[in-house]
Amino acid sequence: MLCLTEKSGIRHSEHDLLMGGPLNITKLGNGAGLALLALCCGLSVTAARSQVVDTGQGTSTYSGQVSSGSAQSGAAQNATNRALQPAPNVQNTAISDYRPTQIQVPAEGQSSSDAQAPAPQPRARRSPAGPPGEFEAFISEIVGKPIRRLGSDLLTPDARDFTAPPVVSVPPDYRINPGDEIRLGLTGNVQATNLRLKVDTEGRIFVPEVGAVQVAGVAYRDLQAVIGRAVSRQYRDFTASVGVTRLNGITVYVTGFAAVPGSYTVSSLSTVVNAVLAAGGPAAGGSFRSIQVRRGGKLISDFDFYDFLLKGDKSADAVLQNGDVIFIAPAGAQVATIGSVNNEAIYEARAGDTLKDVLVYAGGVNTVADIRRLHVLDPMSDQGWQELTPEEAAKTPARRGLVLRVLSAVGIAQPAQRLPSLVTIGGEVQKPGRYFVQPGTTLDEVIAKAGGLTAQAYPFGAVFVRDSLRRQQTYNFSKAVDELKVTLTAEPLVRYENQDKDLTARLSAVDALVNQLNGRRIEGRLVLPVAPNDQSLPAAFIVENNDNLVIPTRSLAVGVYGMVNSSADFRYNAGAKVGDYLKLAGGFNRLADRKHVFVVRANGTLLSGRGTLGAVALPGDLVFVPIDSQRGAFWARFKDLLNFGFQGALATASIVAVTK
Fold first, then answer.
1. HSE on the CB side for 605, CA within 13 Å?
2. Contacts by 346-353 with C-beta closer than 8 Å and gap 24+?
């Protein structure tokens, strides 16, 4: 046996070539020459894959061996006829330089060389989410807001598109389908640049100078090896790079309780989730828990959509193949979970699930939930709401139509006598600040904690603000403003004399007034039962949380404002009356409403009506004189009468002149 290693520059004697026996070729830079010499000696050449170098870029290197008893290839025979010539001394003749075979793509098979990504597939049909089912409508009416099945938000037209993107890396387990386009590159003894080979309807590609290669159904990870073996039957010592540049798409069938059942052309990389969402998802009676994939009449997988929605687990989301049938089963028992849970929705229970399992589907209770009690309603019975403990809920089966409600533990007003209070005291006390007191503490006890009142304190003018009272006053004031708006807006409809006036201007004035009233700040002030000369505050008055007390200094002034000739604050004179301070302000001006003068006392009370001007003023009083709104209306009417009389007199004079 003779073993030869082919290297550039080595000469071989005729004796060596005629010795016969197997010839192993490990370097094929000029391997074709050795193959020709071997053929002259009665040897045949077979090519076999000896090594695959996976560089992560879809390339492989192939070499071959020469052995007897194999059929001679057509390429080797042609090379023999061209290269072997009789020579007197083979030992002194160098093997001619070898040129690698160039494979040219036929004109009709050429493709654009810049196509690097799978072609966009026809967009799957999307259907808007159907109307809510009967159970969904019932639960929404109970709660007062829409409550849908878990997963329904994925089925709306404006939801995120879950179809496979047109540009994506082909996974290793993807199986080649008819219509896909494969890119093949060869370097070495055989050279081909960027061959674009389309898989025909029989699942084959045709490689020039090699022939047909069956690739349909081959996993992408094995595609390089399959094509490499086919090429190695004709050529040796080459490097192959293989990739998928275009995906043709597949046809799948969505049946059962789908929103829009039918056949769909989807991307070859689509999974069960992509196809189900393309069909609009399960219908109102369809299941999210059992989506079956059948291939060739056999059950391939039974996908639970909740694994994807609640856990983010797509491990069971099978990659589809051409002709797969997706069957959406009918929905199982549905249970509504409402109240203080992390996700209010209607959940589909599987066999063996309990109410505790349904609560887990809802993400559990939220931060403020009352976990001691659960309420369950069976609409198909007359028992009404039933209260369960968490232990009982873990044993109660999740039956169809049940409503599970979790109550909140916050937002419930508690008796003031049970709650500790944080009270703020400022103004004329020895130690102003915030004091934390126990339930049932009185106001005088809080003042004692603050060191008592100072000598300059004016208890009659104390400003006491209560948070609970502010909330109540805000609600009442808002309700009163709404009623006022309705009254002022409807007045032109019920009074004949206002129907011909400009309604647009009137409505604008009403809106301006309502906006001004709504902009008022409600303080929540509580008028304490204190006389003007008292030196203390009520002793038995119980404080509440967030109470705020400010005790002012005794005021030495009385203010007079409004429609007077000189608005100002005047020094307090004991025994002086309200009318005396109006005289100090220069008296009423011509727009003043003398009948509706009112006085705001320092403690927040209001003094108005007859006898106001003769009442004794107190320190801190605010005297206000409003404008007489009827005075402007009177002069406007008087002007209209004058104009009417003038026009009438002018008309009479004209008639007299004409008759004369």
1. 12
2. 346/135, 346/136, 346/139, 346/147, 346/148, 346/149, 346/150, 347/149, 347/150, 348/149, 348/150, 348/287, 348/288, 348/289, 348/306, 349/398, 350/289, 353/397, 353/398
Q: What is the distance between the terminal CA atoms of the chain, rounded to a whole angstrom? A: 157
In this structure, what is the dihedral angle of CA atoms 173, 175, 179, 185, given to the nearest 10 degrees? 60
How do 325-330 and 250-256 pair as beta strands?
parallel
| Average pLDDT value for residue range 608-622 | 91
Decide if 552 contacts 428 (C-beta within 8 A).
yes
Identity of residue 267: S
User: pTM higher than 0.70, yes or no?
Assistant: no
Burial bucket for residue 159 (CB in 10 Å: 0-12, 13-18, 19+) = middle
pLDDT tier at 417, thresholds 50, 70, 90: confident
3-state secondary structure of 297: coil
Distances (CA, A) of 194 to 59, 242, 620: 13, 9, 97
Ramachandran bin of 411, using left for φ above 0, alpha for ψ from -120 to 50, beta for the remaining angles: left
Compute the distance between CA of residue 569 and CA of residue 600 in angstroms, rounded to an integer.
14
**Beta bridge partners of residue 238, listed in sequence order:** 62, 188
* Contact (Cβ atoms closer than 8 angstroms) between residue 150 and residue 306: yes
Average pLDDT over residues 222-230: 92
Q: Is 82 exposed, middle or buried (0-12, 13-18, 19+ CB in 10 A)?
A: exposed
Residue 586 CA: distances (Å) to CA of 97, 558, 601, 615, 627: 126, 15, 22, 19, 16
How far apart (Å, rounded) are the C-alpha atoms in residues 484 and 468?
25
Longest dimension (CA), the chain: 160
Q: Give the contacts of 431 (CB within 8 A, at least 6 positions apart).
A: 449, 450, 451
What is the C-alpha separation between 76 and 68, in angstroms, rounded? 14
Cα angle for residues 453, 459, 462 (degrees, 5° grid): 105
For every residue of 74-95, DSSP letters joined together read HHHHHHHHHH----S-GGG-PP
pLDDT at 8 over 70: no
- Give the model confidence (pLDDT) of 519-550 as tens digits: 888 888 988 889 988 989 988 888 999 999 99
